[in-house]
Design a protein that fits this description.
Distance between the termini: 46 Å
Strand content: 15-25%
Order of helices and strands: HHHEEHEHEEEHEEHEHEEH
Structural class: alpha/beta
Shape: rod-shaped
Radius of gyration: 32 Å
Amino acid sequence: MNLVDGIEAFVKIADLGSFAAAARELNISPSAVSKLVSKTEEELGTRLLNRNTRGLSLTQEGQMFLQRCRVILDELTSAKEELSSIAGEPRGKLRVSMPYIPSFFLPVISRFMAQYPAVILDVDLSDRLVDVVDEGFDAVVRVGQLSDSRLTARSLGNCAMNLVASPDYLRRYGVPAGVDDLRSHACIQYRYPSSGRTESWPLLPPASGVLDIIPTLVCNSTDVRLGLALEGKGIAFMPGLLTDKYIASGELEIVLENVVEQNYEMNLVWPTNKYAPPRLKTFTDFMVSYFTGK
């Protein structure tokens, strides 16, 4: 039995003076009202109403309980109204994780904050593979394959990876004509923080395998590798979401295009939850619109 239903029935009986009147008000049968009150009395271990041929009256315990019931129902009504107002304007804390690319995600975070000031973002910038559910994240930006059935996902688009270098570097050291030429170049590689492995540079088609190179520098920061490439310190395998604007401005050039390349799908994922708060839906819609324009 739902105790709240029993409380509501008891208050109606006390206010209206009869089971029949309470039943009409609640749109249920008088016998259903009687059962609700009886179950409530069983739950509390005390009699709330005196029933006799002359009518109904509250017991001493019933009079005491009635005051508490009114407070409970008032608080429940207030809580419903408060949640309804929250649904109108997203607010509250949202814990999210994004890849450690501050220069790329800073404008995203800033625009969301400006648009939804009542939402408090708790942002974890990390390249490790976080456990969305067990670590209590509300949403996570993830690149690559998804395998966790506990998660819901929305695509943020594809992320192309290419070798890039500055025009100054290529003037000084030459443009690689083939993959073998990379062995004589300064190669800046990425190291995954979670596993310690260095990132492979895949050949096209995928069946061709990966490059076996000796890196000049290994770094676990995407922003640092981008900065080194821009300063002419070597060739780096970088995501287009970071390098596209520098390629358009001429500050970087793609090296061995259509020879060394990889594509990933970028997704926003969150724990599957039928009752997700409005702030989460707002955040997911914002992210999809920001990245895909939809």
